[in-house]
Design a protein that fits this description.
By secondary structure, the chain is α/β, with parallel strands linked by helices. Helix content is 32%, strand content 17%. β9, α7 and β10 form a beta-alpha-beta unit. The longest helix has 18 residues. The structure holds 2-phosphoglycolic acid (PGA). 2-phosphoglycolic acid binds next to loops.
C-alpha cells in the first residue's frame, strides 16, 4: 500500500487527479470507477482544469460510478448522476453514453443490479477505482456488516450515513433517501487499482481503524488491506495515524 500525504485538501486533490490522469494517459480507453461525496470534488475540478488546458483527453474513457440513491434520477440535484454531470462529465469531452451510474429508479431493482454487474463485466472490469471513506468505514454505500462477497445490490442506509448526508438537504433527515444501490465490496476489490482519498481530522480515526486494525465487515474499508494495489491519498490530518 502506498500513501501520499499532502499539507491540505487542495494538494491532496491534485495528487489524486495526477494519479487519475496518469491512468487516462497510459490507457486512453480505460475504465474509471468514480465516486461522489465531498472528497472527490477537488480532484474533479483539477481534472477539468487540465482538460481545458489540453493536457487530457477523455473521449475514449469509460466510467462506472459506485452508487446511487434509490428514488432519485438525474432530474434531482441530489442524485449522484446529477453530481457527476455537474462536477465532471459536463465539462470534459467524455461521451456520456460511456458513463454509467446505477439506476436508482428502475422498476425492477434486482434487475438493475444484475444489469450493472453486466455493464462492468462487459468492460472487462475497472482499471482504477476512486473511493472516499465514510466515518463508519463504508466504501460506496457498503455499510458496516455487509458481506465482502457482494456485487451490486440494494442497501438500507445506516442512520450515521443518513445523518452525515442530511447536510445536502439543509439538515432535513426526513428528505434523505433510506435506500441506495451500490457496487458491492467484491466488485470494488476486483478493480485493478484502488485510489482512496480522505481529508480532514474527522477521518483520522476511521483511517487508522481501516488500515491498521483487523480486517472485518464491521469496517468495510478494512478489506482493502487485502488488495494488492491500493494508493491512499490524504491530508496530514486524515493520515496522522498512518504516517
Ligand atoms: P465524503 O463522503 O467525501 O462526503 O466525506 C465519503 C463517503 O461517505 O464515502
Amino acid at each position: 500500500m502506498r500513501i501520499y500525504s499532502a499539507p491540505d485538501y487542495y494538494h491532496a486533490s491534485r495528487i489524486a487527479a495526477n494519479i487519475i490522469s496518469a491512468q487516462v494517459i497510459m490507457k486512453p480507453d480505460c475504465v474509471l470507477g468514480l465516486a461522489t461525496g465531498s472528497t472527490p470534488i477537488g480532484a474533479y475540478e483539477q481534472l477539468v482544469k487540465w482538460y481545458e488546458k489540453g493536457d487530457l483527453d477523455f473521449k475514449e474513457v469509460r466510467t462506472v460510478n459506485l452508487d446511487e440513491y434509490c428514488g432519485l434520477d438525474e432530474t434531482s440535484d441530489q442524485s449522484y448522476r446529477y453530481f457527476m454531470n455537474h462536477h465532471l462529465f459536463d465539462h470534459i469531452n467524455i461521451d456520456k453514453a460511456n458513463t454509467h451510474v446505477p439506476s436508482g429508479t428502475a422498476a425492477d431493482a434486482e434487475q438493475a443490479c444484475a444489469d450493472y454487474n453486466e455493464v462492468i463485466r462487459s468492460m472487462h472490469g475497472v482499471d482504477l477505482q476512486l473511493l472516499g471513506i465514510g466515518h463508519n468505514g463504508h466504501i460506496g454505500f457498503n455499510e458496516p456488516g455487509e458481506a465482502f462477497d457482494k456485487e451490486t445490490h440494494i442497501v438500507t442506509l445506516s442512520d450515521k450515513t443518513r445523518q452525515a448526508n442530511a447536510r445536502f438537504w439543509d439538515g432535513d433527515l426526513s428528505q434523505v433517501p433510506t435506500h441506495a444501490i451500490t457496487m458491492g465490496i467484491k466488485t470494488v476489490m476486483q478493480a485493478r487499482k484502488i485510489l482512496l482519498v480522505a481529508c480532514g481530522e474527522d477521518k483520522a480515526q476511521i483511517m487508522k481503524d481501516a488500515f491498521t486494525g483487523p480486517i472485518t465487515p464491521e469496517v468495510p474499508a478494512s478489506v482493502l488491506q487485502l488488495h494488492n494495489d491500493v494508493v491512499l491519498v490524504g491530508d496530514e490530518a486524515a493520515l496522522q495515524y498512518l504516517l
